Amino acid sequence: MNKYYIGFDAGTQSVKVAIYSLEMECVAEKSYPTTLNYPQSGWVEMDVNEYLEACKKGIRDCVTQMKEKGLNPSEVRGIFGDGIICGIAGIDENGKPITPYVNYLDSRCQKDVEELLSKNFDIWAKETGNPTPNCMFPAMIARWFLKNTKFLENGCKFVHNAPYILMNLAGLSPKDAFIDWGTISGWGLGYNVYKKEWSDEQLKILNIDKKYLPKIVKPWDIIGNLSQEMAEFTGLPAGIPICAGAGDTMQSMLGCGLLEKNMAADVAGTCAMFCVSTDGIKEELSKPENGLIFNSGTLENSYFYWGFIRTGGLALRWFRDNICDKVGEDSYFDKLSKAAEKIPTGANGVLFLPYLTKGVGELANASGCFLNMGMDTDQATLWRAVLEAIGYDYIGITDIYKKGGVSLEEITITEGGSKSNLWNQIKADMLNTKTKTFKKSGGAVMMNVLTVAYALGDIKDLKEVIKNNLEINKNYLPQKEKTDYYREIFETRKMLLNSEMKEVFKILEKVK
């Protein structure tokens, strides 16, 4: 009998579903786009039921693909999904959403964040590794829901998008709502990262009742089985085991091979993230001025820090859809990059500021813009400026890591952005570090499949199997002359952002 496993990734821009064999051969895959709504400036909303429907249809389509290949869907052994760690929705006692799904792209909590910041609680850094509140944290989003929606009247639980999908696939009720021990750290505040439990003291400060929070489980715990209703819709047999799942960032870290401390990865997804693995909270990195986020990983006793550009990958989609008018045409990214290869390093002096959903910290009111354009500025130049913009912010993040004593000898690049040779080389040049990609680019989805196989006992040593599946595809070596040039521009850009542009952003916010 063959063994197959279903993994899905409920990301910001799409839901990806795939079926793999035990030998890690992808036998079926399907992706459905998601919808981002912008009801007002700084707000970004989604529909958690859209995630559920996309996943259901994705599984159904993958099952159809299996049948077309003569494979037997009854040989599917289990289901495991990952989702966004910084994003929640509120559901009622019937399991229906009563709030929009709000994630890390949203800034509606900024005033509340500033109020909490003024109180200077030291428990945040001590128990979570995150020294300050942040408007992208679900803890802050939950506070907003409690204050500004009808959640207090009808609400039952706050849930993340992947657990919402998984509990619906299993036909669970809200009282069975769950969250895995890695995704809980996506809350940013309200929990103890070492004990893997909600923190009563923090929740009291946050004024969040623990009854609204899901129970904490291990990623590979079996939380239920595929219901008859979902079996009929998807074409799978009822009763297939369903795991608790994990956070997208955590699974991406596994896919990057961050299995030991002092390893680095660039998760080139919607929220561009630069991560380093550690053996726990590091005081020199958990300082407010650093702006880093600390999380626990999927595996036991695994931890990592990450710096981020909220609209990193989303800026690429925005440029393709809104500027190039090529909505949904993924192949156009390749066309843009091919043209941008002919543009000199530094994009002919054009700078892009990728703060399309505002910035963070001292640049909270920042906005996206192009600077220094001329009559010779064309689409390829602007595209290169967009790619380089993410790299400039990465330089700032890696400077913090290096100052904190983290060695950055090489960086693994994963997720959608890793497919661009141009962007991979730009990052190597900008960060003065060798970058690499892997041959198997399944990313988080492939890690989900490995984890469910582990949960079912079909894999005995998860870490070892992950290592064996990480074969290098290509290395990119930094070019010193370009590294020096980018550093010079970075310092100029930093000066602009920290002085003149601060006042400009204030004025522009009033205009907007």
CATH topology-level name of the largest domain: Nucleotidyltransferase, domain 5
What's the CATH superfamily of the largest domain, by name? ATPase, nucleotide binding domain
CATH architecture of the largest domain: 2-Layer Sandwich
How many β-strand stretches? 24
Can you summarize the main beta sheet? 7 strands, mixed
Structural shape:
globular
Number of domains: 2
The Rg value, from CA coordinates, equals 22 Å
Strand order of the largest sheet: 18-19-17-16-22-23-24
Note poorly predicted spans. none
CATH class category label of the largest domain: Alpha Beta
Q: What is the mean predicted local confidence, pLDDT?
A: 93
State the end-to-end CA separation: 62 Å
Helical percent range? 25-40%
How many helix segments? 17
Describe the structure in your own words.
- With 512 residues, the protein is an alpha+beta fold.
- It has two domains: 4-250, Nucleotidyltransferase, domain 5, CATH 3.30.420.40; 257-311 and 396-479, Nucleotidyltransferase, domain 5 (2-Layer Sandwich), CATH 3.30.420.40.
- It is 37% helix and 21% strand.
- Strands 18-19-17-16-22-23-24 form a seven-stranded mixed sheet, with helices on both faces. Strands 3-2-1-5-15 form a five-stranded mixed sheet, sandwiched between helices.
- Helix 11 (331-340) packs across helix 12.
- The longest helix is centred in the C-terminal third of the chain and has 25 residues, at 379-403.
- The termini are far apart.
